[in-house]
Amino acid sequence: MSDQIASAREIVNDVRYSRRDLMAIAALTGSLKVDGHRADLVILRGAQAHAALNGRSHINNDDIILAAELALPHRIKGRMFQEAEINSYELEERMEQINSDLGDDEMSEPHEEESADSEAVKKKP
After folding, report:
1. Other residues' Cβ atoms within 10 Å of the Cβ of residue 84
2. Long-range CB contacts (< 8 A, 24+ apart) of 58-61?
3. Which residue has the higher pLDDT, 21 or 125?
4. What domains does the chain contain, in order, with CATH numbers?
């Protein structure tokens, strides 16, 4: 496991994502009425870390769902005196709906110019 973590640390900043991934994360947090963009960034970085841990160079929906499950519970607005909870099943359902709404188009794969753009705005490791 320690070798797997060491390998993941080496590649995590190179794990890529598409515009569609960013739109899906934004739609997910928006559908849950999460304020601000911090949750979006945490989910993206968590998805990249999970993909790196699994030796992949691109994030996928499973990475996003797992990261969201960790990043969102305390950020979800609930009604007063009600516990705001979200589970992996509900996140999967929402992601399926979001993917259906987004459809399959040219935004699903990272483009070369996107990679250059993401390098310019990439946060410090």
Report:
1. 14
2. 58/15, 58/16, 58/17, 58/18, 58/110, 59/15, 59/16, 59/17, 59/21, 61/24, 61/95, 61/99
3. 21
4. 2-103 (1.10.8.80)
Tokens read off for 30 = 């928006």
Q: Which tens digit of pLDDT belongs to each residue from 75-102?
A: 876 544 445 567 788 888 889 999 888 8
The whole model's pTM is what? 0.73
Please give the mean pLDDT across all residues of the chain.
Answer: 81
**64 to each of 2, 14, 107, how far by Cα in Å?**
23, 16, 16
